[in-house]
């Protein structure tokens, strides 16, 4: 694999669209770029599993970002169902606790036992959303202390539950890797190329800074999907990274 393709494979494009027509239009524009595709709640709730299967048939790696967060038994069943779609990455909220995260893993394992042809997805947990600021964490969510400490606390719980990694901001990658080891994966949204609008994100870094921090994957939505020319936007990001 070329270095360029290896770099592209670490970019997860957030297909945050209301319908498959718009998502397919982006796929058309990005044709030939071997990036990961992320399907989140907007597209999945509107279009269901059919589009996820379509992405897999097109050969994409797929992160199904449904952020499961419920009682352990329900999360176990949900994780079991989504593993059967054959996706490459799924996630839960670390705030659900160790038992809930371990239950998710059990649901995944049971799906793999039921269908040994499936590959095991990477299972990760969201620590603190990248839209959460220091003030929100302390005053609204009610967790005292620094955001980075709260993130690392959840990352340790995620590791204890047997999951593969966490979603966090690139600002926390170094601390997570120090606490949980280099093999423990970090998936980082909150990516903003220089000059692009932050929107609702608060803990942000540029793509280059994020990879320099040692993150495994960067998640990028609007800087690509709302660009006048999405292909040019992702090509520029790849150029910056190679
Ligand atoms: O789990 C996620 O992917 C996620 C976690 C998080 O803490 N922050 C976050 O932005 N995301 C997702 O990453 C994507 C970021 O999109 P943009 O802000 O448009 O680049 C969205 O699809 C979010 O749902």
Considering the chains and any ligands shown, give keywords for the structure.
15% strand, 12 helices, alpha/beta, globular, 242 residues, binds orotidine-5'-monophosphate, single chain, eight-stranded parallel beta barrel
Describe, in plain words, how this protein is organized in 3D.
It is a single chain. With 242 residues, this protein is α/β, with parallel strands linked by helices. The chain has a single domain, classed as Alpha-Beta Barrel (TIM Barrel). The protein is built from twelve helices and eight strands. An eight-stranded parallel barrel has the order 1-2-3-4-5-6-7-8, surrounded by six helices. Helix 5 runs parallel beside helix 6 and helix 8 runs parallel beside helix 9. The radius of gyration is 17 Å and the shape is globular. Bound molecules: orotidine-5'-monophosphate. Orotidine-5'-monophosphate (OMP) binds at residues 14, 16, 40, 65, 67, 91, 126, 129-130, 167, 189, 199, 201, 219-223. It comes from Paenibacillus selenitireducens. Pfam families: OMPdecase. Keywords: Decarboxylase, Lyase, Pyrimidine biosynthesis. One of its GO terms (biological process) is 'de novo' UMP biosynthetic process. This is Orotidine 5'-phosphate decarboxylase.
